[in-house]
Amino acid sequence: MSTLTNDPVVEQLRAAFPQVPFRPVDPGIPGLVVPLESLVDVCRYLKTTPGLEFDYLASVTAIDYLDRIDVVYQIRSLKHHRDLTLRIEVDRDESVAPSVTGVWRAADFQEREIYDLMGVTFTGHPNLKRILLYDEFDGHPLRKDWRLPAEPRSVTS
Predict the structure, then answer these.
(1) Is residue 111 assigned to a domain?
(2) Total number of domains constituting the chain
């Protein structure tokens, strides 16, 4: 059974955004893969539309698939007791995604953590800088291709 045809929230999103080519996240999980350019509008709609009111951003995380990075948003409507997953696919080489801090302030530190550890730049973020590692740290250690730099060997005579 496709998540896109069985969840009333997903159906409402499809009706509100008929031009957006939503795809299901996973069977059995209410959620959608959202195109990058539609993410902020979809999130704002989910938060502010009466009857939906997804007012709580539970988590934002990222997954490195080596050919792309997915950013996954777990959101919740506390009023209506509903959960929804949104996923965006980010080009791994460019690693740029829109920030949702203007929709949910809770995205602030979570987007900074993804930026720090995975290297995804969130456009429109009010304070995008490293949050866990020091500024001079080289690379993003949660990417699958990241390696520790080689230790310089000391030369003794």
Answers:
(1) no
(2) 1
Phi/psi for 6 (5° steps) reads -115, -15
For 22, 29, 49, 95, 120, the CA distances from 14, given in Å and listed in that order, are 7, 16, 14, 27, 27
153 pLDDT more than 70: no
CATH of the domain at 34: 3.30.460.80
What range does the domain containing 82 cover?
3-97
**Separation of alpha carbons 2 and 6, rounded Å:** 7
Confidence of residue 59 (pLDDT cuts 50, 70, 90): very high
Please count the helices (runs of H) and the strands (runs of E) in the chain.
4, 7
Q: Which two tokens stand for residue 3?
A: 């998540």
What is the β-pairing status of strands 23-26 and 29-33? antiparallel
